[in-house]
Amino acid sequence: MKLLSCGFKLFFLLVLLLLIEACATVPYTERSQFIMVSEGEEVALGTRAFEDVKKESSLSTDPALNAMIKRVGKRIATASGIEGYEWEFIIIEDEQVNAFALPGGKVAFYTGILPLCEDEAGMAVVMGHEVAHVIARHGAERVSQGRALAIGQAILSVALSSSSPVTQEVVGNAYGIGAKVGVVLPFSRSHESEADEIGLTIMARAGYDPATAVEFWKRMAKNSEGKSNMPELLSTHPGDKDRIEKLNALRAEADVEYDKALAEHPEYRRAPERIVMPPKKPVKNGTGKQKITEP
Ligand SMILES: [Zn+2]
Hints:
This protein is mostly helical and about 300 residues long. It is about 60% helix and about 5% strand. It has one domain (about 20-280). A hairpin with a 3-residue loop joins strand 4 and strand 5 (about 105-110). Zinc ion binds near residues 129, 192 and 195.
């Protein structure tokens, strides 16, 4: 029987060792996580992907917006208390209502989300969420899940190699479906919830009013009403109502952090700066949405 072969036992032992080596803890929530990617590899993956994004995108050169995203990003990253990341905060000229974070401290906002942020505090809601994805190492966790699934499938194919092809297919399919629905989807949702939770705490620690978070997510939900292409920020989440309820439940603790930040930094008491969108660039040949119209 192949299951008992020496090679298989060695393989199984290696997998076990990998699993033992692969436990980490998420800061703030203290959730145990399974990570099979070294921090060096994680940062290299994120940095490389970010360089590609920057090459392929049109980056905003608006001085006020760039100054704001760097200021908000730095304040929140510093307030998180997690060191060792080479943070970068950029704005991409794109109508998508979205933002994203890559491992290693790389955060990008699309210009499409900025009007919904309304001001610096709204930007801080999204920034807190994105910085949270980074410090919670959600990217590395996703890569690790993929690797674990691949190992699982390899083990399964060895274990089933003497079974009939029909059994192999049925079990293989079940495994694949279970892996996708049971592991990947709820995990993404739990990552989103966790990013909301950590994000709320760190925005408050950075001196941004946590009350803004609920207002911002309400605006996001309203904006996506009736639209088929839901922004990624919302699509993996179990629902706006649930999200807002959870944020409200976390408000009391976040308010304590916010009051502490205001006491330590009186300069944070000033009203958040409004986001002023630069005029859209006119598109030549009349093919874009923006046309030059003569008075
Ligand atoms: Zn997210």
